[in-house]
Amino acid sequence: xxxxxxxxxxxxxxxxxxxxxxxxxxxxxxxxxxxxxxxxxxxxxxxxxxxxxxxxxxxxxxxxxxxxxxxxxxxxxxxxxxxxxxxxxxxxxxxxxxxxxxxxxxxxxxxxxxxxxxxxxxxxxxxxxxxxxxxxxxxxxxxxxxxxxxxxxxxxxxxxxxxxxxxxxxxxxxxxxxxxxxxxxxxxxxxxxxxxxxxxxxxxxxxxxxxxxxxxxxxxxxxxxxxxxxxxxxxxxxxxxxxxxxxxxxxxxxxxxxxxxxxxxxxxxxxxxxxxxxxxxxxxxxxxxxxxxxxxxxxxxxxxxxxxxxxxxxxxxxxxxxxxxxxxxxxxxxxxxxxxxxxxxxxxxxxxxxxxxxxxxxxxxxxxxxxxxxxxxxxxxxxxxxxxxxxxxxxxxxxxxxxxxxxxxxxxxxxxxxxxxxxxxxxxxxxxxxxxxxxxxxxxxxxxxxxxxxxxxxxxxxxxxxxxxxxxxxxxxxxxxxxxxxxxxxxxxxxxxxxxxxxxxxxxxxxxxxxxxxxxxxxxxxxxxxxxxxxxxxxxxxxxxxxxxxxxxxxxxxxxxxxxxxxxxxxxxxxxxxxxxxxxxxxxxxxxxxxxxxxxxxxxxxxxxxxxxxxxxxxxxxxxxxxxxxxxxxxxxxxxxxxxxxxxxxxxxxxxxxxxxxxxxxxxxxxxxxxxxxxxxxxxxxxxxxxxxxxxxxxxxxxxxxxxxxxxxxxxxxxxxxxxxxxxxxxxxxxxxxxxxxxxxxxxxxxxxxxxxxxxxxxxxxxxxxxxxxxxxxxxxxxxxxxxxxxxxxxxxxxxxxxxxxxxxxxxxxxxxxxxxxxxxxxxxxxxxxxxxxxxxxxxxxxxxxxxxxxxxxxxxxxxxxxxxxxxxxxxxxxxxxxxxxxxxxxxxxxxxxxxxxxxxxxxxxxxxxxxxxxxxxxxxxxxxxxxxxxxxxxxxxxxxxxxxxxxxxxxxxxxxxxxxxxxxxxxxxxxxxxxxxxxxxxxxxxxxxxxxxxxxxxxxxxxxxxxxx
Length: 1014
Description:
There is one protein chain. By secondary structure, this protein is mostly helical. The protein has 38 helices and five strands. A hairpin with a 6-residue loop joins strand 3 and strand 4 (952-954). Helix 20 packs across helix 24 (619-634).
């Protein structure tokens, strides 16, 4: 065995090429080599490792005995045993390569030991020395059905066996070191040829019908998982097969040999591709089924990435982040895509839902929970392994870490359309893929989300300006235009500060936010849509069933078929819902998601809105709200462990600091979230100072003595409370209008459908469209009626306790007009239009609503300003309407006789004031234009001039306007009530005008009375 390895630049090129040619043409008896292996290699083709093999002893010098493994038990001697290195080397080479130069030895082992006949002939004819050998001639003479890879694996294992035996012999350190050096040269030669056969298996004579090259290493990798199916378990304990305990060292040897100059890419790259695109990842049953073959892929990949050179190689492969992949194809084309897309969602894995949740209506809760537990255990195993794989890649070095971050960013970029309202699921990534990536990122985020938020300062607030990883060009900002955001980003990049690139924590933080927006929350939206679809089907089924008159008629078969079709569709949706709940309601996943969302919601904010906050994507705030709403509705118990106080702080911060957010719909969502969350917080003592549609919260407050006292104190500050009253008035007006409008349309469609003769003459398309419209209206109406009823109840409660805020000029007229209008709607000439079938289903209770409105009138019946405001409502006030309302209320026992008497006494007062107002208007006669309000066209009592537009309006008019819109109504410039300028000179003239006209009217009245007496 030579002491120094040869290199590819040796001047023995001629000998090497000659040996390779012989290697490809020589064949063992009974073995056929593929046609490809008979061609002569050119110097440019891949070559074995540039290491000389050990010298094969000449037959003339020593007869080769059958190879015998040296005894592993060293003899105990006082002095170290002297090693005959030449003899040991000869014995070891024969054993390791399982070869002999003697035919008799091969015959004794039935040719399991290979006789190197052609090499013997070459020695005898050409007189070559063993140092000339650069190839393993045995590869041309292997037993039938043994592949080159199997032979080399056996040789590699025998190197390890020989080394173990050598170390136990007790030879002197010098002899041991010399022997080990020779063994390592043999190992390098074997590994070199192994790499070559993995790349170019056709270079060697191979048996027919056997998988060759990369698949030969994929098989052992798949066998690593103890839970993988029997298909990939080792078929035998063959000495030429890699066992699970061998594979790691084998891969380490391959990596060490081929890492320089990235040769490893050609050797193990095909192996990685064959493993990660294995057929077991594309089977319809996915994570289900009995064999769980996907676990073998996971086990093999976990081992591969644990070896740093291989981990680095994986992240630089072309298939790691394929350039030509699209949003829907990335998860099938990228190396880790097929593994990351395994999941439970029905669109990708319908067979799994059908298998675990068939006949959902017939399953007991325990049965469903058992299926949940089984699938969640499998998901946890998969997702834990995925995180370990990505975490190992990240820790392999700076280059693979950057490749992993860019991989996540690419997925986000490709799926930017996924957050849209109407998106074809076939054009974007699957729910399973996106949610799995979310679980990985959440685990990455855990280390910096400690309970005290001590690492929050390590998150770069300027990430979006300093990193191009996440593109926000098409995203709405919290309170900035696209131009402002672009200018801010340019200013940050050109500031001259040599700021470092955002750290790993910052990257993970912002990638997790984006992945949640484009992935997880879209999946939640899909899940919520299933419930809406199921509700639509329920209504449709009720409509088909109707009154049952079809039974026994010629239509029975057709109707029953339609009913069965709807029921089958309902069954499919319930299966999908259970599949979604398996993942979305998984306690561990929910806890992690809630922890991250809570962490995100605790970002400190100064009183002045910084530009760095204004340019953030609006979806950050919106997603916090949406996710908290989802958890409150599906897993409220999770707030007992974390997030309750942080969530309440987040809500109250943005409700009190409304200037932080521009989008009014986002503000409304925050209010809605408070309403949903409040039942969880009834024991807490909070002062609520802002409200919109939060009547439920305020009713809870009112029933709590402590909260009620705090709210009563707030009400004493009339100026502030008037703003609250104004918002409540806006709610009542809007909700009542919408609910009555929806009910009227429902009434029209139901009347149309009730006329069966006419209805059956309509086209099927028309009927289907009207039925769809009806279902949509019913869904919306139930929401509006519920909210309007609760808000009117709130109005009833507050007018009973505190009246002053409702009597200010900017409120009282609107209140009176709103109450009159709704009273007319409930009992006036068109009240029949509100009659609908099954009003309970629509949450519509007209009697209770009428009772509450009458009660508001009773609460304010003694207030002169309110009496005047009702009297001044020329559009809706009518004694006849009040009389009808009183009759209905008394007849159905809504009000007592005493209350009815009080109501009619109030109406009498209103009529008296109405007559006085009409007389006063007649006395005024024609009013000069300069005395009239520019907006209301009524005479002003307290004229003020607006500073920017210079328009003149009554103070009550502009105060009412500013309650809802803080701008000048004539030019939209910002305006506060403190900025208006009293027009004292005009007020004096108006007062003089009123006195003069009233005196004139009184004088005329005296003349008329005198004439009557005469």
